[in-house]
Every structure is written in C-alpha cells, then in structure tokens.
Amino acid sequence: MFDTKIAILVRNDLPMWQRLNVTAFLATGIVAAAPQALGTPYVDAAGKSYTALCGQPILIFEADLQGLQAAHRIGLERELIVAPYVQAMFSTGHDDANRQVFLAEDPASMNLVGLALRGGKKAVDKATKGLALHP
C-alpha cells in the first residue's frame, strides 16, 4: 500500500519511559524531514478539527547498541532519512545542548539509544534485518 516505510529502533536496555520518550522525539524527526508523510487533519462528528497524524504505519523495533549502529550505517549507505538519538542527549535540558552533545559523538561509533529511518521499503527492511519488533 505504501512505497516507503518508517521504522523506529529503540535500544533494548532503556527504561520504558526513555523508550517512549525517544520514540516520540524520533517520530517528529521523520515528519520534519518528510512532511508528505502526514495525512490530512481529522474532523469529528461535531465538526471540530484536529491535527493530522502520520498517514502510514510506523514500525517500532528494539535493538542493542550494535544493532542500532549497523542500522545507522546501512541507513546512511542507502540514503534513507535518518534521525538519530544518542545517550548524551538524556543529560541535556534543551535542544541547543542536544546539538552540542550530538556534535561531539564519533560518527563511526555513536552511542545510539534510538534511530528512525524512512525510505524505500526494501532499503528500510535491509537496515532492520534481524531486529525484532518491540514487544
């Protein structure tokens, strides 16, 4: 039904509140990079309008650090939309500080806690191969 796929990968050793927090942040990154992923606004039976939501499913996977790093590498190689979230971002209090700690990461071995990918189905499948859907 869709020619693209969205996957969010979350590290399997995080507390549940951090998994949910990372997932929410990463979903916004995908929509910011691909606004065409949004559907149209919702309207209830009383005529009240509500915001649009993503117009396609988002699959949530869990992975260890190595799985996230492999998916990151493949996502970049296959030119997917890639939204990363690193461990150091938990220690900051605002978006500018997040960018500073992200900049300090080694691109070849980021301490990833989450990663969102969007692109062609086959390319996203390749990046998430072997990973389990989040329970």
TrEMBL record:
Pfam families: DUF2000. It comes from the Bacteria. InterPro entries: DUF2000 (IPR018988), Pep_tRNA_hydro_II_dom_sf (IPR023476). This is DUF2000 family protein.
